[in-house]
Design goal:
alpha+beta; outer membrane lipoprotein receptor (LolB), chain A; 13 strands; globular
């Protein structure tokens, strides 16, 4: 009887060790490039169910001349990793005050974008072909606000080091963009994209986007300072984010054409 008990214990220990070994092996399995891209997309654009932030933007040209923008941005997720709405309300300077930029993001197809120009009392649809044009005169482009669809590019994992996953990304439709490819550095702990370098049609770097400072807000890694450099012209734009809050209970009805001319109190505060 005693021998049987000892034998049972030995078998149990070996089974447990086997299970632990299997679990450790599974945990150590490297992520696929698609898994890395998906997690990075969630970290960068889907923190919480919704969000609000105030943005101060400084646009500097090659001669050192500065222009400034201040706006509030609201975000509403219809589905985690899926459709989203963005509402951008401009507060400063006077020439852009009360201007509104609205985005309905549709992963896998063209987004819907509107721009309300208060001086003309005009609502303008932004064509899909204009998504890579300058966002209110800055070095950011319209697409930067809501993010580029992850299915629009072919992704390749170039390197995994202690800090970053380094990916090369090539557009599936080269005619729809001004770049031939871009390289991106993704933080291995937070999956936050920390830097992107874009190459032109000749394969030369011409644009650089970088997260200068990341802070934990309500448990979510959040970029609070970012910069875009135009390597060709020498211009740059720095954005600073403040008053960032997540899961504030925004209503979907805010993100409609009706509210382009009637900004909700959530952005006027």
């Amino acid at each position: 009887m005693k021998k049987n008990v000892i034998l049972s214990l030995i078998v149990s220990v070996f089974l447990l060790l086997g299970l632990l070994s299997t679990a450790s092996f599974s945990a150590a399995e490297p992520l696929t490039v698609d898994q890395i891209v998906e997690r990075s997309n969630l970290a960068a654009y889907y923190a919480g169910k919704d969000g609000r932030a105030t943005v101060k933007m400084v646009i500097t040209d090659a001669q050192g001349r500065e222009r400034r923008r201040k706006f509030t941005i609201l975000r509403y997720d219809l589905k985690d990793g899926g459709e989203q709405d963005f509402y951008v309300y401009f507060k400063e300077p006077a020439d852009v005050r009360k201007m509104v930029y609205l985005v309905h993001k549709h992963p896998g197809k063209d987004d819907d974008r509107w721009l309300y120009l208060p001086a003309l009392d005009l609502v303008k649809r932004i064509a899909a072909s204009d998504k890579r044009t300058s966002f209110v005169g800055s070095n950011f482009v319209y697409e930067d606000v809501s993010g580029r669809g992850i299915d629009e590019d072919k992704h390749e994992l170039l390197e995994t080091n202690e800090q970053f996953y380094v990916l090369n990304n090539v557009p599936k439709d080269l005619k729809s963009v001004e770049f031939s490819s871009y390289k991106i550095w993704i933080d291995r702990k937070t999956f936050m994209p920390m830097k992107a370098e874009y190459l032109d049609r000749e394969g030369q770097p011409y644009r650089e986007v970088e997260a200068l400072e990341v802070k934990d807000i309500q448990g979510y890694p959040t970029v609070i300072r970012s910069r875009v450099k135009d390597l060709a012209s020498g211009g740059r734009t720095v954005s600073e984010f403040s008053g960032i809050t997540y899961d504030i209970g925004l209503k979907e009805r805010i993100f409609t054409e009706r509210y382009l001319r009637r900004p909700p109190r959530e952005v006027r505060r």
